[in-house]
Fe2OG dioxygenase domain-containing protein
Amino acid sequence: MTISLKTQFPLTLPVIDFSSRDLKPETLEWDSVRARVRKALEEYGCFEALFDGASVELRKALFEASEEAFDLPLETKQSTKSDKLYKGYVGQVPTIPLYEGMGFDGADNPEVVDDMTHKLWPQGNVTFSKNVQSFAEKLIELDVKVRTMIMESFGLEKYIDEHLNSAKNHFRFFKYRGLDENTEEKLGLDPHIDRHFLTILCQNDVVDGLEIKAKDGEEWIKAKPSQDSSFLVIAGASLHVLLNGGVFPPLHRVIITGKKDRHAAGLFLLPKEGLIINAPEEMVDDEHPRLYKPFDFEAYFKFTYTDTKKRDLSALKTYCSL
Ligand SMILES: O=C(O)CCC(=O)C(=O)O
Ligand SMILES: [Fe+2]
């Protein structure tokens, strides 16, 4: 009799602990975490990071702030819209009616956060801007550790600073409306790969819904956080191209099953405008021929913008493989 491994052992995402105060470069602990990060990003394209930098209180405050912001009148939320792709408010999209998102670039810059806050609350909202900023700072700390480890693990030490400086951060809140009485589970967000370098996500504890597609299978793995202090780190297409395929950008989606609203927040590390991404020579040899043409993130983003079906690995290959 064959036993289905799938039902016996549903896959779970790797969990990696970043919470030690001694987690510093050039220590045994750093090397061991780095090896796990590399393996997770090769095999799953993502992992759950335990990181106690953002306290339970801070998360609670952040999601309260997010609720407050999404409760504002539509017109106010729309005032954060900008003509740049992916900035400001997105909502009322017919194919994903439960979804709303709001975000801005440069969350570590107090002026930027204040500007966004004033668009939402013309009289100001100090609690909101303070919480967003502290939260973003913690996520940035984790991002620097993760991307430094990734570069080191591929022997790209000499490019670490250049790579860290080649990204800007975009902070984003999401709200997915809970289901009505008679609605069955619904798509909150279409399956997609992230197009940036790296994404760090955090969701409110009561409502899960994010699912990650396993690399070599059909299974959708539920990305339910195992602890309060965890974040989900996801590799994006830009990192995949930079490392000549060395990390896997996983397909993920959001499915809403319950009546409660789901709130999430995340930091997206985007290639800076004008950056052309090209895998360093160190990533290319006879066994690993160069996979992609020089890659312009803005152009690729536009390519995937209107047609959500283009947000997967095979469309990336069609777009720029050699
Ligand atoms: O809501 C989430 O947890 C995921 C959002 C997401 O995947 C994205 O914005 O790229
Ligand atoms: Fe995503």
Remarks:
- Residues 242 and 279 are 4 Å apart (CA to CA).
- Residues 15-320 form a domain with the Jelly Rolls fold (CATH 2.60.120.330).
- Residues 174, 189, 194, 201, 203, 210, 252, 254, 264 surround 2-oxoglutaric acid (ligand 1) (CB under 6 Å).
- Residues 126-153 form the longest helix (28 residues).
